[in-house]
Every structure is written in C-alpha cells, then in structure tokens.
Amino acid sequence: MIDLPTKQALMNTSLAHLPAYKQEQLQKIASIIVETVQPEMVILFGSHATGRWVEHKYVEDGIIYEYISDYDILVITKSGENRKDYEIQDVIENRCRYHTPVTTIVHDIDFVNRMLSEGQYFFADIEKEGILLYDSGNVALAERKPLSPAEAKEIAQDYYDQWFLSGVEFLAFARFGLQRGALKEGVFSLHQAVERTYNAVVLVFTGYKPKTHNLDKLKRYTKAYSEELAGVFPENTKAEEHLFDLLKRAYIDARYKKDYRISAEELGVLIERVQKLQDIAGPLCVEKIASILIL
C-alpha cells in the first residue's frame, strides 16, 4: 500500500524568503518551544510566513516611533494536554523574550482539527499559508471544510455587529462615567470598549477569538492588520506606558482594588485614544468585509 502524504507533509517548510538572521531567530524559537512544550507541531503564520513583514522607525514631534512585525507562531499541543493554553503561551513568550519576542497562539490538536473540519478560516489559512517549523510526526491535520465567500462574509459581518458595535456602546458608557465622576466604572467600561474593538478586528480578519482579556496581547494580535491601529497606544514614553497600564489594569483593579487610581484628566485622554482606535478599526473592518466576495 502506498502511504499518502499527510496535509502537513505538503505544507511549506522553507524559510528561504527570509533574511539569514530571521531564519536563525526562528530556528531558535522553534527549539525553545520544542524543548519547553514537546508539541505536535509548530507553525509560523502571518506576515513573516507570507513575506509581508514590516520593520521601520520614524520620528514625529520629536518622538521616535518603531513598528516591527512580530513572529506569529501557532503551537499545536498533544491531545489531552493538562496545562492550560494560556499557561503554555506565557511560558513560551517569557522564555523567548530574551532571544526574540514572539506572539503565540496555543491549542491542542483536537481543537485545531475540529476548527478545520468546521471551516474555521483562521486555521485553514494557517494550514494553507503557514510554514511548518516542527512536526512530531504523530498526528495529522483534519480535512478543511471549504466556506463559500458568501458564508465567510456573513460570518465576518456577524462578528462586526456583535463585537465592534458593542465596543462603541462601552465607549459611550465610559464617557458617561467621566461626566458623572464615576472614574473607576468609566475606565472599566473603556477597557471593555478596547477589548471588544480589538476582538472585532481579529475576528473579522481571521474568524478567531483569542481567549484573553489582556489588552497587551490583543494589541499584538491586531498589529498584522494595521500599523495605524498599533500606533494608538505607542508605549514609547513613560507617560504613554502609564496610560496604557492604567487601561490594562482596569479589568481587575478598577473593580476590586481600593488603591487603583485614575484622574479625570487621564480618563479623558484615554477616552479620546479609544475613540481614535475605533475610528481606525471601524472602517478597517468594513473594508475587509466588503472585500470578501471579490477575493
């Protein structure tokens, strides 16, 4: 009997389109992940897999801004993996931070194969465009259920209606909190506005919703779709770091910690930033949805 090749055997494994130093970085990243996790597969996806990565710096009003595309890595773990996905993700990203920062997504093989069989286009695109960095050889990827462009467009529109429009409402709640002097309630609402806005972008573009409330992670997930979006919270000065930190901590601290403090001025600045975020994200999502039928 002739052994038919598995789907991952047909995946691209070449990094030849990348500069030598990037190839070395990715080989190191893969080695760290394999040593740390013992996964089934490690797959590079996103801009570095497709050759559309960006690296540049620019100066505006005397401040240096830097935009560098992350390495996006899907780590497929064993069936029945005891550790939580986010625990594995944190371990990998912490270990890689001292070599080359990465953005990882972690799921077990059962979840990935279920998503492929249901036609989930985030994982389907990774299987089609990704670069296989490591394969244990123990498992195979499921057959992908194809979605028609009309089905994909309907799904993306539903995500926009659910997540982006909800984010708009939470921004309105934040403004109301500022007007009332309810600053903690206002900044919590603002966190929800940002979380939903980021999720809307990721869902519209990929159909995938990260399992996190961490705005830093969500921000990194959206970098691939808009440089302008990533620049709303630049974190390139102490003041910028402080503002984004106030927003990140609001999900827990603004609700449960007595010593959490935010001024009306800080909340006002953050509200305008989030308005800018939505002014960018809204048209970005609408344009993506409109483009689906003509792919």
From TrEMBL:
- Sequence ranges assigned to domain HEPN in this UniProt record: 164-284
By its UniProt entry, which InterPro entries does this protein fall under? HEPN_dom (IPR007842), NT_sf (IPR043519), Polbeta (IPR041633), Type_VII_TA_antitoxin (IPR052548)
Quote any Pfam family the record assigns.
Answer: Polbeta
Can you name this protein?
A: HEPN domain-containing protein
| Organism expressing this protein natively | Filimonas lacunae
